[in-house]
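Supplementary Note 2. Why include the ligand at all?

Several targets in our set were suspected to adopt different conformations when bound, so apo predictions alone were not considered sufficient. For every target with a known small-molecule partner we therefore ran a joint prediction. The input for sodium ion is given below.
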Amino acid sequence: MIYVALLVLMACLVIGVPVPVSFMASAAWLIFFGGPDGMGYEPSQLLPYGFTQMNSVSLIAIAMFIMAGGIMERGKIGEKLIDMVDVFVGHVRGGLGVVGTISCAVFGSISGAACATLSCIGTIMFPRLQAGGYPRGHAAALMSNASLLGLLIPPNATLIIFAWISGQSILACFLSTVMPGIVTTTLICLVNMYLLRGNEQVLVAHKRTSEEKWNLFKERGRKAIPALMLPVIVLGGIYGGVMTTTEASAVAVLYSIPVALFVYKGTNWKGLWDVVIESAVTTGVIMVMLYSVSMLSRLYVLEDLPNKMLFLFQSVSENRWVIMAMINVFLVIMGMLMDDISVVVLTTPIMMPIIMQLGFNPIHYAAVLGVNTALGCITPPAAPVLYLGGRLGKAPINEMMKPALAFMLLCWLPVLLFTAYVPKLVLFLPHVILDVPW
Amino acid sequence: MSEQVEAMDTPSCDSCGTVCSPAPHRPKNPVDKVVVGFFSLVCFSMSVLLAALITAATLMRYVFQADLYGYEEWVKLFAFWLYFCGAGYGAFNKSHVSADLVTAYIPEGGFKRFLAFLKDLVTFAVTCLFLYYGYEFFMFGFRGPLGTGIALPMTTIWRIPLWTSYLAITLGLFFMAWYFGVALLQSAKALLKGEKA
Amino acid sequence: AELTLKFAGQYPADHPGTKLMQAVAKEIGQKTKGRIEIKVFPGNQLGDYTLVYEELIRGTIDMSLTSVPSQFDPRLELMYINGYVTGYDSAKKAFNPNGWLFKKMDELNSRLGVKLLGFYVEGMIGTGTTKPAKDPLNPKVNKGILCRVPNMDVYKLGAEAQGYRTVTIPYADVYQSMQTGVCDGVNGFATTAALTALGDVLKYWYATNYSMECINFMMSKKTWDKIKPADQKIVAEALTRATMKSIDEAKALDEQSMKAMEKKGIKVFRYSEAQLVPIAKAVAASWPKLEGKMTKELISEFRKNLAPK
Ligand code: NA
Ligand code: NA
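The joint prediction is reproduced in C-alpha cell form.
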C-alpha cells in the first residue's frame, strides 16, 4: 500500500496539485487503504498530531527570518552592500561577477531564502553586468547560482525546518553549511572568470591605488554598516549566548524596520504593510506544507517506509559510502521535481532513520541536504531560482543553459562531493564552536 | 514585472513551484475584498505582535531580570493565526507551491485543459476531506473530549482554550477549499467551452 | 483471548519503562489464563501523551503508561507538585495505591473517563547547572543561577522557592541555551534525562530530589468496565507491584546515571534525606500559590496529607 501512496503523491505532484494537498492526498490514500491489514488508519488523530508538532516556538523563527529578509530587500540595502564589496574586488577581469557573488553571500547572512537574495542583489547587479559587457545568459546564470549562497550561509529556513523535524541543534545545522558555502563562493568566482577568459567584450575597471581603496572603503563602509549590523546582531546574539534563534529572528524584524524606513529610506509605511503581508503568505504556504507533511510522515513511518528504503539501498550495496552516493542521487532527483522546502519536509522524516542506522553524523547529513536542496533550486524541470534569474536578467532560458550547466558541473558537483565525502570539512566549524563530535 | 519581461520564453516563476513572495493579487468582488481584508489585517497584526512580544521577552530577561512567564502560549496562538490566514490568502493568491510540470511542458489543447481540471478536482476534493477532519478537530476542542463542554483542552499557564488555535486551522482549510473550489469552477468552464483557462 | 488490549507507552523500546510494560502484559496474560491479551506499543507509536489520553477518554486505546496532560483539568498537575518527596522511601509511601494521592488522582481521572492503575517513577529530579550554585541546600540564598523551568506553575514555584531565578525556554532550545549561556541551569529534568539530553553541557548536578519524574499507568474506563471483577483485581495487583518495582529500579538507575555523569566530568552532589528537608519545606511553603488554578480545597487537602514533616 505504501507504494501506491507514493504513486498517488507523485501523480498529484506531476499534474500540478499544490504540494501540501499532494501530501494530504497521499495521506488520505493511507487513511482509507493503509495499515497492516489494509483497513486504514484512524483519521481523528492526524490533525491533532500535526497540531502538537506545529505547536512549537522554534518554527516562528522561519516566519521572522522571512519577514526580516523581505523588509531589508525592500529597504534597498542591496546597493550599499554591493558598493562596499566592489571596493575590494571590482578591478579584476570578471570582477563585477565576483562582486555580485560575494554580495549574494553577504546578503545570505541576512536572508534565509534564495529568491529574496536573487531579487535583492540581482535587480541591482543585472544593469551593471549588462553595462560591463557580460552576455545576458551568463549574467543570469551567474546570479541564479550565486543567490543559492543565501541557502548555505546562515540563517537558513531549510535548515531550521531540518533541525525541527530531525530534533538536531539549529546552531550546529547552521554551521554545517558554512564551509561548503565558502567553497561554493570561491568556485563560483573562479568558474565565472574561467568562462569569461578572453572575452574582450567584458570591460575591466581601472585599478585603484590603496589610498583610493581606503577612502572608498570609509565612505561606502559607513553606508553599509546599518545593514551589516543585522548579521552581527543575529549571529552574534545567537552564538554569543544572548538570545535563542527565535528571539534573534524577532529582534531582526524589529531592527530591520527602522533601517529600511528611516536609514536607507528604501520604502514607506505602505511598502512595509505590503512586505509584511507577502512574508505572511510565504510563511503560511510553508506552514501548511509542514502541517500536511507532519501528518503524512507519521503515516509513512507507521508503514515502515524508512526501513523499506534502506533495504532497497542495501540491496544495491552494503557499503555505507556507496549508499551515501545513492542518497545524493535521490536528493538530486527530488530537487529536480520540487522546490527546496518541499524536498526537506518530505525527505527528512524518511532519511533520518536511515542516516542514523548507517552511523553518519546527522550534522554532516544536514550539510549534504543543504547543498542538495540549494542545487535543486536551479535544476530543471522545477528550477524556481533559475527561472527567476532569467526573468530578472531578461535572458531566454536557452542562452542560460550552457553557462548554468558549466556552473553545475564545475562548481556544484565538486561541492557535493566535498560535502558528502569529506565530513571533516563540514563538521570543522560545528566541532570547534559547539563541540559536535566528529 | 514589466510587460516586456512577461513575454520572455522563460517558464514563469509562480508556475514552477517556489516560495518567492509573489506580490499579493488585489481582490475584485466584495466577498473577496472582505475575506482578503480580514486575512491582511490578521497577518499584519500577528506578525508585528509576534516580533514585539518575542523581543519584549528577550529584553525583560536582561533589562528587568524577569521572565515573561508563559508568553509562549500567546506566541503560539498568534503564530497559528498568522500561518493559516497567510495560507488562506495564499489560496486566493494562487501562491501555494506546486511542481507544476504540466503547465510548463505540455502544449495548449484539450488534453492540457483536462489535466488542469483533474488537478483542480483532486485539489478541491482532498482539501474538503481535510476540512471535514479539521471541523471535527475544532469541535473536539470546542465541546471537550466528552462532548459535554466540560474539561475543554487548555494551555497550562494562561488556560487559553486550545480551540482558539484549532479555529485558525479550520478557517484556513475552509478558505483554501473555497478558493480551490473557485479555481475548479473556472477550469471546468474552460474544459467545457474548450478555451484557455 | 476474550479481550485484546492496546497498551500505549512513551518510552523507547529499550527503556526500562517499556520492559516493565512488557512484563506487566505477560503477567496479566498468564494470571488471567489468556482471557486478557495485551499488545504493547512503545515509543509514542500511538501518539504523544496528550493524544493517548484523548484516546483513553474515547476508549480507542485501552491502556497506557504515559504522562498525564493537564490540558483537560489543571488539577491533574497535582502529582507534579514539587517538594512532597525527599527520596525513594518517601516516594513509596506517597505513591502507595492505598494512599491519598492515588485516590485523589484516580478520582480526577475518573471524571474524564480514565481509570488510574498505578504510578511509574522514572527517577528523581535535581538541578543541573553550568556554573556552581551558591549554597544549594539553603533555600534563602540566591543561587546566582538563571534556571530554565518547564512551562508549568509547579516547577516555576519550586525553583524560585529554592532560590533560583527562572526563565521558561522551549524544550527544543534548552540544549542550545545552556551551551551558549542564555541560561545557566535547568530544573525539572530527571537524572537520567539530564544525562541523555544535556550530559555534554552540564558541569554540576545537584541531586536535590525535590521532585520526581513520574508518569501513570492508566486504563480507559470503557475498557475497565468490560473486564470481569476477578480479572480487574489481577490487573490492579499487577500494576501495584509494577509501581513499587519502578521505585526500586529508579534508585538503581539514578545512581547509575550519576556515576555516568561523574565519568563525563560532571560534579555530582548527593545528599541525605535529612539534609534535603529545608528545601522541601521551602518548596512546600509555595503551594498556596497553586490554589488559583487547582482550587483551595484540593491544595489544603494536599498539604494536610503530603507536606514534609
Ligand atoms: Na541565509
Ligand atoms: Na529543481
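Chain A has two domains: 1-41, 57-434. The CA atoms of residues 5 and 26 of chain A lie 5 Å apart. Comparable summaries for the other entries are listed in the accompanying table.
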